[in-house]
Amino acid sequence: MSLRIGLPQWQHPNWKRAGLHTLEEYARHFNCVEGNTTLYALPEAETVLRWKAMTGEDFRFCFKFPASVSHHAQLRHCDDLLSEFLRRMDPLSERIAQYWLQLPASFAPAQLPDLWQFLSALPGAFSYGVEVRHPEFFARGEAERALNRGLADRGVNRVILDSRAVHASPSQTAAARDAKAKKPKVPVHAVRTADAPMIRFIGSDDVNDSAALFSDWSARLQEWQAAHSPLLFIHTPEMGDVFPLLHRLWPQIQPYSDGLPPLPEWPDQATLF
């Protein structure tokens, strides 16, 4: 088994000077991508085929279920929406590492039966993940036990959000303030409920502080990748500034990911302009 490493996107205007213009170029350095765009809109059929053409057989996507399913319908009476999403993504079916739900903070423990019904209706050919945000799912009480037990019984991964670095940072940049407003401040519970745990690590503007907090994950990732297939996605408040954090973390994580080369000497953001 092996760790897959990626970012929440494969393009950014600031990356062009580093030679990253397209998904094809991104896929030379990373073996998966988080795939956030599907939360907001379905891609055109031609776009999906283009994504397939730009990636190799070993590359993997982790697409979010659309917000029309997870947020607006709250998993109820959404069979047509779900079918359209899976049909649209079908050309990439062999390159899906995980489809995952990002549930809103309003999705409460009382709605777990809706989650179980939704998951039971999904095709069995894929791996799935669920990210929750309601505080009761982090209180180590019966609600969290019921969530973890239900996911484990169904072989579904609990997506782990680690936003400690960004919320601990004193930075007052616009990107940092925006990240603090949008990223939930929830406890980090490193729980593996299935074979492909997903970790979403949200770094801060400070590489040293972010790397110090990430060190908690090194032993866990080493343990998990020995018998499972964990997924790691690295975020920063301003994704155009992600290179310094990547360079700091890469020696810790690259050995656990089969086939990923060392990172190029991408320039620091200050030298890009």
Automatic annotation (TrEMBL):
InterPro entries, A to Z: DUF72 (IPR002763), UPF0759_sf (IPR036520)
Xref: Gene3D superfamilies: Protein of unknown function UPF0759
Domain of life: Bacteria
Bilayer-crossing regions: none
NCBIfam families: PRK10302.1
Protein name as catalogued: DUF72 domain-containing protein
